[in-house]
Design a protein that fits this description.
The chain has 14 helices and 18 strands. The strands form 5 sheets. Strands 1-2-6-3-7-17 form a 6-stranded mixed beta sheet, with helices on both faces. A 4-stranded antiparallel beta sheet has the order 11-13-9-14, with helices on one face. Helix 1 crosses helix 4, helix 1 packs antiparallel against helix 14 and helix 5 runs parallel beside helix 13. The structure holds ligand BES and zinc ion.
């Protein structure tokens, strides 16, 4: 029997235990954005170190940072073999609103072959496939066919603040030929894809202050500019009737979609009506001139993520509030720069804030957009691996989400990433009832094993 056949058979024979281990990992609420969970984030890093050591990664360790720990480890087979750097993130999004979960987010359950838990898909479940692929090699061939390095992050969902510095100061330890990441999606059930484009991000928080304290709206209403009204007007003014963003200079660096890309995208089997219905809206809203797929993956956006101010408790309170705030994220495409976009946004706001109101502006985090070269040995190996598992060639697609580290690997280490994801848009990542089909967990491990084999064969 060939070594890949034995590794695949081992995976199949051990699926139940693999899933049981994943469930242990999912039980730890590693919510990176909420300081109340920082012990649990560290506990998850330690769990991964123990697990990696158990698989034979003797040098595995959780390295402390100013934020959450970064887990690293490596298996060197032979310096002449290519080296694959595996990136994943073990932190998760907050689970709220909790009342919309049908089972508690950190008490994983399996229903009809689907595993429900926060992080099941994004990204603990997908990250864990790479650890289990390593186990398959170690327990059959004794070593993988490539050198493997792991870098598992605990801050991805909150902006990866510690990661660029860590990469810069660990260049040697992280040197590799390619990065592989499973933190994205299949194009559709049974239809594999390789992601070659990710959007970037500028995330800002703004607070408007009018009067220096909350006022009685009877005594003062009619003669004071209400900061909630000012904020609402500003936000409403951020798009025009064509749903284009009005921030001056926002589109200046946007690389237009090529005719080839637009043609390839329009040939994908994508049903925009069904897509809208699936999320419960009657119609989509896109920047004029762009299809739903183009607008949601390859054009820049601006979204208000949260807005607050004044009285939001039960009943009525007649208050003219002192403050109003909003969180706003902008998804960027090449060649927009996150810091420059923040500056343009601040300038746009400052030019429009009413005189009687003060603006506080804060950039929360940023990420560079990326496009990855599709012509490489690693892409060819991934494409072949996915074709073998799904009996059809993968599409090459751009996605609208962001994985900040991909640009860091490129700019700091010169490394391209292969984004081979097994999620589905319908897996409810970042939402209540996040889930991951166990069929895709098994397929992912198979594809990773096959990728190692093809990449090693060069
Ligand atoms: N796994 C997602 C990226 C993703 C989103 C892939 C949608 C496929 C479809 C990742 O964990 C994520 O959510 N990233 C954040 C990054 C942000 C905080 C800079 C995102 O895109 O919001
Ligand atoms: Zn993720």
């Amino acid at each position: 029997m060939s070594s890949i056949t034995r590794a695949l058979a081992y995976s199949q024979a051990n699926q139940n235990r693999f899933v049981a281990e994943l469930i242990d990992l999912l039980r730890i609420p590693s919510i990176s954005t909420d300081p109340a969970y920082s012990d649990q984030v560290t506990q998850t890093a330690d769990w991964l170190v123990d697990h990696l050591k158990g698989l034979g990664v003797e040098d595995a360790e959780a390295i402390r940072t100013k934020g959450h720990p970064i887990v690293v480890g490596s298996i060197t087979v032979d310096p002449v073999c290519p080296t694959v750097l595996v990136y994943g993130h073990y932190d998760v999004q907050p689970p709220d609103p909790l009342d919309l979960w049908t089972s508690p987010p950190f008490e994983p359950v399996i229903q009809e072959g689907v595993l429900y838990a926060r992080g099941a898909c994004d990204d603990k479940g997908q990250m864990f496939m790479h650890l289990k692929a390593l186990e398959c090699w170690m327990q059959t061939a004794g070593t993988p066919p490539v050198n493997l390095k792991f870098i598992l992050e605990g801050e991805e969902e909150s902006g990866s603040a510690s990661l660029p510095g860590f990469i810069e100061s660990h260049r040697e330890e992280l040197s590799a030929d390619v990065v592989v990441i499973s933190d994205s999606s299949l194009f559709a059930p049974g239809i594999p894809s390789i992601t070659y484009g990710l959007r970037g991000m500028t995330y800002v928080e703004i607070t408007l202050t009018g009067p220096d304290r909350d006022l009685h709206s009877g005594t003062y209403g009619g003669a004071i500019h209400n900061p909630i009204h000012a904020l609402a007007a500003l936000i409403a003014g951020m798009h025009d009737e064509g749903h284009r963003i009005t921030i001056d200079g926002f589109y200046d660096r946007v690389r237009p979609l090529s005719d080839d890309e637009r043609r390839a995208m329009s040939a994908l089997p994508f049903d925009a009506v069904a897509w809208a219905q699936e999320v419960g809206v009657r119609a989509s809203l896109t920047e004029s001139g762009y299809s739903v797929l183009e607008a949601s993956t390859s054009r820049p956006t601006l979204d208000c993520n949260g807005i607050w101010g004044g009285y939001i408790g039960d009943g009525a309170k007649t208050v003219l509030p002192s403050k109003a705030s909003a969180k706003i994220s902008m998804r960027l495409v090449p060649d927009q720069d996150p810091n420059e976009i923040a500056e343009l946004m601040e300038a746009w706001l400052r030019a429009r804030v009413p005189e009687s109101i003060q603006l506080e502006f804060r950039m929360v985090h940023g990420a560079q957009p990326v496009l990855i070269d599709r012509q490489s040995d690693a892409m060819a190996a991934a494409s072949r691996a996915l074709e073998e598992v799904y009996a059809r060639a993968p599409y090459f697609t751009r996605i609208g989400g962001s994985i900040p580290v991909v640009a860091d690997f490129k700019h700091l280490l010169g490394l391209d990433s292969v984004l081979m994801g097994f999620g589905l848009d319908s897996d409810a990542i970042h939402s209540p009832n996040e889930h991951f089909g166990l069929d895709r967990f098994a397929e992912g491990i198979d594809a990773i094993l096959r990728f190692h084999t093809h990449y090693a064969a060069g």
